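Predict structure. Chain length: 304.
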Amino acid sequence: MRILRPALVLGLIASLMVVPGIATASPTAVFPTLWPNLVGYYDFQHPVPGNPAGERDRGSSGTDIDLVNGGSAMRVRDGSGFSLQTQQIDPAVSGNNDWKAGTYATTLSAFNGVRGTTVMGWVKMTGTNPSPNSGTADPNDLYNAIGLAGILTGNSDGHAVRALLELIQVNGELKLVALGRRIDGGASQTFAANENWKTLLPDGEWVFLAATFDFDRGTMALYRNGKPLAGTYVTPGDPWELSGPGPHYSSPTNPHGIKIGGSFPQNTREANPCNCRFDDLMFLDRVVAPIEVYLQYRVSPRGR
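Prediction complete.
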């Protein structure tokens, strides 16, 4: 079987995307094979009509998200369009004013009992990370994590996740990770990138990140700018309880929502804020192949 080189595949895709009948999203291109499984897609160019503090879902589920606390001011011009700004507002006050995004207590049935999930999109660090812990009196106490983007479990309080991209301390060192939980209320597994997180996410630079979660095989993967990252699984044993006969699926429940730039999208408390920007966030109900991650990175205007 002949294997096509990425450059040739890109040429074919470029020609396909100007043919009538081939679906594309404006203004950012989406690799065609991703469309059937693109449950949630947010490019921050499409406010909810009549509600500028909401962002329309360009994916199949129609799950609009809220721009929490900052509203329309969280859409900032960056490059040729808008992106989402999230940030800690007052590190000295234990309140609920951090800028974050997401939705809570919504119906995301496409992620009910799936064999795999993918979370990916563009991230740009824009300030001090990690942030001071606003829940403690010690001004030197920092959060042990920086929330990027993820899907909540079916019984989540706004923090517990089924599939998450974030930075979190692993053995005392902050790491870029994919953190997944197959069973609601069960143990999570973490796949941590080996490389220094500040090298992977330099301040002021747009980076395309992807994390895949294979609940059937018990594997995860991380990607940066279309290329896989070497990493290590953190939890020994069988945290996803895969010892029995397969196939294996995530819990047969609808996730409680999506969180972006921090936890608790219902705005009941603050945790793990990210002083950063997001663009073209994608949530898919299958494991995206490595070549698809690469091609999505390349067809995106930021990756060309």
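Summary: The chain has one domain: 6-303.
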